[in-house]
Amino acid sequence: xxxxxxxxxxxxxxxxxxxxxxxxxxxxxxxxxxxxxxxxxxxxxxxxxxxxxxxxxxxxxxxxxxxxxxxxxxxxxxxxxxxxxxxxxxxxxxxxxxxxxxxxxxxxxxxxxxxxxxxxxxxxxxxxxxxxxxxxxxxxxxxxxxxxxxxxxxxxxxxxxxxxxxxxxxxxxxxxxxxxxxxxxxxxxxxxxxxxxxxxxxxxxxxxxxxxxxxxxxxxxxxxxxxxxxxxxxxxxxxxxxxxxxxxxxxxxxxxxxxxxxxxxxxxxxxxxxxxxxxxxxxxxxxxxxxxxxxxxxxxxxxxxxxxxxxxxxxxxxxxxxxxxxxxxxxxxxxxxxxxxxxxxxxxxxxxxxxxxxx
Length: 359
Hints:
The protein is mainly alpha-helical. The protein contains 10 helices and 2 strands, in the order H-E-H-H-H-E-H-H-H-H-H-H. It is rod-shaped and about 240 Å long. Residues 258-310 form a coiled coil.
């Protein structure tokens, strides 16, 4: 609401700079912005639609106010005199005039060109002033001519109104102007009038031609700027197209790599499936072997248990047999002892008997 109630006040140069900035940054319709720029430079009122478009672009309402009259640059008047006198390239001079009026620096080549043209124009002015001083016609010649021909007051008034053209070159000594009649003078004055009118028309045509030349130079500059912008946009588009081509190539490479990886994954899957089948077969075989081994182990265990039982039984029987053998051995040892004792007793008895018989 504050922007609508209080629009921003800007000068013409400020809004022109903003439009030039929009054109340089390529933001918006370039043709329309150039049209608005030309209207502002020529101090023409903007259409309401152009005003709204420009306010939308600079993001805010504005009012163009009168600028404080700046100090006139003396260089502008010199450049304008060069343009009016037809010295040099009018398009280039108009371009330099616009640059100086916008307080922009000139290129070095333009500065050298302008200095040379100003020097040549000052030299021409000096030469013309010297020629006019040396070649001015003496007023006594006109008075003498009027006395000899008895010119009427009307003709004299015509001489005061239309001055005779200054003659080029110095007159020789003893030269007198030829005697002319009044009708010849009137004819000359009429010719002078017609020549002056034709000169005025030629000057008008020349000024119009100069204006058209300046417009043409401005159009050429605008065209060059358009061409530069088009070349920049073309280069940007070319770079973007190259980037897109590179991206497409990278994407195609990535897609090819993905396809190869998919094929490798399929191969790995098939190999994994085959390995899984082999592993399942081997598992089944191992399970069968394990069951067989378990069965054999169980059989061996049962056999071992039976063997252990038999061993225990045999051990028991052996222990019994050992005990019996021990008992038998003890008995035999006792028997042997008894036998030995009996043998000893027999020997004793034998000895006793022998002794008895011997006695």
